[in-house]
Amino acid sequence: QVQLVESGGGLVQPGGSLRLSCAASGSSFILYVMGWYRQAPGKQRELVATIDSDGRTNYADSVKGRFSLSRDNANKMVSLQMNSLKPEDTAVYYCNARLTAPGYWGQGTQVTVSS
């Protein structure tokens, strides 16, 4: 029902910023809880942030105060603004849309934070 395409990843220095975008295709985008998750090599996929249909957000403790999640229902997009990036933020970042688990996943976009 939902196709997701992430963009905006890349290489950035510690302390820098990136904005990730997730474009959705399909119906009923406004009803979905949208989220960003990340997975580093050899580690489990972990929650970064979620935003529900009312715009309420939830962030992992490790990114609170640095990352900000927003959604644009008219354009069926969700964005993750990442500031003060750290090397430990390096991972593949995945967009997720769900009404029920496990929902739908995008292909992922690589974020590398390194000097």
Main structural class = mainly beta
> What is Rg?
13 Å
Beta percentage is over 45%
**Helix count?**
0
Task: Supply database-style keywords.
11 strands; four-stranded antiparallel β-sheet; 115 residues; mainly beta
Structure, described:
The chain has 115 residues and is mainly β. Helices cover 0% and strands 53% of the residues. It has no helices and eleven strands. The protein has strands at residues 2-7, 10-12, 18-26, 33-39, 46-51, 57-59, 67-72, 77-82, 91-98, 104-105, 109-113. Strand 5 and strand 6 (57-59) form a beta hairpin. The radius of gyration is 13 Å and the shape is globular. 31% of the residues are buried. The mean pLDDT is 96.
In short:
This protein is mainly beta. Helices cover 0% and strands 53% of the residues.
What is the element layout, followed by pairings?
Blueprint: E1 2-7, E2 10-12, E3 18-26, E4 33-39, E5 46-51, E6 57-59, E7 67-72, E8 77-82, E9 91-98, E10 104-105, E11 109-113
